């Protein structure tokens, strides 16, 4: 699930599948297929595909907002757990 969130957020931030793939160190075709799979699973598109890049749909905006919150919570949890382990 973290990968789903991370990949969608990267595409949203880069607004370009090729740049996002470079940032994530994966191939562009793999990232395109992965995003398409997520959209199929959700039953709705997260991005408008445009000639000059990708733009979030309304559903994509909701997904990315929650994805960022979830990823932040995950990082905070890991920090807290690390503190407990180091104490």
- Described by the principal axes of the CA atoms, the overall outline is elongated
Summing up helix and strand content along with how strands pair, one would put the structural category as mainly alpha
Low-confidence stretches: none
- CATH class call: Mainly Alpha
Distance between the termini: 30 Å
* Helix count, DSSP H or I runs of 4 or more residues: 4
The share of residues in helices is over 70%
Radius of gyration: 15 Å
Number of domains: 1
The biggest sheet amounts to: 2 strands, antiparallel
| CATH architecture annotation | Orthogonal Bundle
Strand content: 5-15%
CATH superfamily: Winged helix-like DNA-binding domain superfamily/Winged helix DNA-binding domain
Give the overall pLDDT as a whole number.
94
Q: CATH topology, which one?
A: Arc Repressor Mutant, subunit A
The number of distinct β-strands equals 2
Order of H and E elements? HHHEEH
- Which strand order do you get reading across the main beta sheet? 1-2
């Amino acid at each position: 699930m973290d990968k789903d969130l991370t990949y969608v957020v990267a595409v949203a931030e880069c607004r370009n599948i090729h740049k996002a793939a470079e940032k994530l160190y994966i191939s562009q075709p793999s990232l395109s297929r992965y995003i398409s799979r997520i959209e199929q699973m959700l039953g709705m598109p997260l991005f408008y595909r445009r000639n000059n890049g990708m733009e979030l749909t309304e559903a994509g905006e909701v997904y990315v907002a929650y994805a960022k919150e979830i990823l932040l919570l995950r990082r905070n949890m890991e920090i807290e757990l690390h503190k407990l382990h180091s104490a």
